[in-house]
Amino acid sequence: MARNVRGEGRLDTGLLLVCVALSVLAFLSPRRSREDFASMLRASVLSPLVQLEGRTATVRAAIVARNDLLVTRGRAVADTLSLRAISDENATMRKLLGLAARLQDGFVPAELLPVRGGDEFSMQLTAGSDVGVQAFQPVVTADGLVGMIVSVDRTTSTALTWAHPDFRVSAMSADQNAFGIVQPHLAEGAERWLLEMRGVPFRAKLDSGTLIVSSGLGATYPRGIPVGTVIGELSTPEKWARTYLVQPAVLPENIGPVLVLLPSRAQRGVNGVWTSAAAADSAARAMAAAGDSLARVVALDELAARRAAFDSLAADSLALADTIGGGMLTRPDTARTPDSARVMPRRPDSSGVRTPGGHPPATKPPVTSPPGGPR
Q1: Which fold has domain 105-281?
Q2: pTM
Q3: How distant is the alpha carbon of residue 19 from its chain centre?
Q4: What angle (nearest 5°) sits at the alpha carbon of residue 19, between those of residues 14 and 24?
């Protein structure tokens, strides 16, 4: 063991001395000789290492370029999502400003506050008793009903949304033909975020797409706030009343800035606030449809005129072709009648007999006696 260690130590020392000697020799040799020697080493002994270094540099450049591309794509996607979010937020704010303009007064604007570990069916608002917010006041957006205030502090308040199991609102159809109580559906999966309208009289049948609004009964929600639209009827053991599945007017992901209706506004009512906006949208759609119908009528009239002109041109072409093909040389108004077909007028002195040539036969002049009598 000692001999092996001692031998390896001598070998290392010898290699070190050789390297030092070569270094000194290379340092003292001319520059041209050093460059030629280095080129020879790179082309022979160090050639695999040089190739490996080149491949490593290429791979590193490719990895860096791909990372840059991924970073650029990520930034582009983030910018796109940010622009879409900003656009959606601007649209929501414009709709909320329109609702505020229709209400004119009797409301308090508020925004949502992040809640940690709270109830997922409740929300914190940036409005409290300092601005007149009280418990049991409706919370609305430009799309419809969100919920109501349940607790109030000086600067904040807590609202209960329509998804809470304790939420109830007296509702009716927009045409006031059916009344009932709207509450959460309390199903599993995606249907958990739906509503159901219970206690509808059996004689009142609602079609899919019927608008459901608050009825104003109960003194909490004024009449006319959109609650949702009917999806279909649910099968229940109750045979004296109907239950309908309702899609909420305000989806959870669309809840942003809200308005809290004050008691003064709730007492005056909100009739026409949301229905006027819906009527304006319907009028805009009707005007667009009327414009499309008018454009369609004009296009059909133009097509009919073109068809009539084309048919007239085709008829004239056919008539001209028949005329040219049937009588180019003998037109009907200038054709000569054959001699055999002519009818000659009867002369008074003729007997009506015709020769084959069509001329009357020759007649002999009458024989008269010379003056003085026959000889």
Answers
A1: Thrombin, subunit H (2.40.10)
A2: 0.54
A3: 77
A4: 125
